[in-house]
Design goal:
The protein is about 75% helix and about 0% strand. The protein is mostly helical. It starts with a helix and ends with a helix.
Length: about 230
């Protein structure tokens, strides 16, 4: 099987993971039936920002599969990436004023993430043995501790890891999704007319999307040159 076929298969597997498969129909539901109020937007956006910061912080330290990461936020909580994602999800549910439907979605996603975490923990225990078990016993799963885990190999934060882990893509599209729903609130719910603020939001959306698309084009070109 060639590299292209492997890439396609890996992407299809990601799209049809249980947590993403649940998200698709819910995403369609909120797109058509949910919109932020000013108060829900002001509250939800802070949780989204907090989740993004935690994920960026974690990806600056994460070395996946080859090393047991205990640096940065991993010294305070075992799953900072999932913690960040959960905060982003809760933030969106509040921002979009989803009421009980959002609460049900959050509970389902929590159950899915707990199942995923348990599976990953078994794999980590097999790979890293007692070192991981010691880490697991001293560092909480999702609620951070105030006391850093000092054992294990440590390394500094790296922006290169954020790029390597493609965390910038999530950052870009979370912001763009917020922009989409903010514009929906302005135009469809509040029936406001176009003004400078809305043009700026539209321009920011296009700019961020162009960065992501441009990055993909550059990577595609580099792969083509190497082939």
């Amino acid at each position: 099987m060639g590299k292209k076929e492997n890439a396609v298969n890996n992407r299809l597997k990601r799209w049809f993971k249980l947590r993403f498969f649940i998200t698709y129909p819910f995403g369609i539901f909120v797109l058509f039936f949910c919109s932020p109020t000013q108060s829900s937007f002001n509250l939800g956006i802070w949780l989204i920002v907090a989740g993004l910061i935690i994920r960026l912080w974690a990806n600056g330290y994460a070395i996946k599969t080859t090393k047991l990461t205990t640096s940065g936020p991993y010294s305070l909580v075992r799953n900072p990436l999932y913690l960040g994602t959960i905060l982003i999800t809760i933030g969106f549910m509040i921002l979009l004023n989803t009421s009980y439907v959002g609460l049900i979605f959050i509970l389902i996603m929590l159950a899915v993430y707990l199942r995923t975490i348990r599976n990953e923990e078994r794999a980590l225990a097999l790979r890293f043995g007692q070192a991981y078990l010691d880490y697991k016993n001293k560092v909480p799963m999702l609620i951070p501790t105030l006391f850093r885990y000092k054992a294990g190999e440590k390394w500094p934060f790296s922006f290169a890891r954020i790029i390597e882990n493609k965390e910038y893509k999530l950052f870009i599209w979370v912001i763009n999704i917020v922009i989409i729903f903010r514009l929906k609130g302005y135009f469809i719910i509040e029936h406001e007319s176009m003004d400078t603020k809305k043009w700026l939001l539209i321009c920011l959306f296009i700019f961020l999307a162009a960065i992501d698309i441009g990055g993909e084009i550059v990577k595609w070109h580099k792969k083509r040159v190497k082939a």
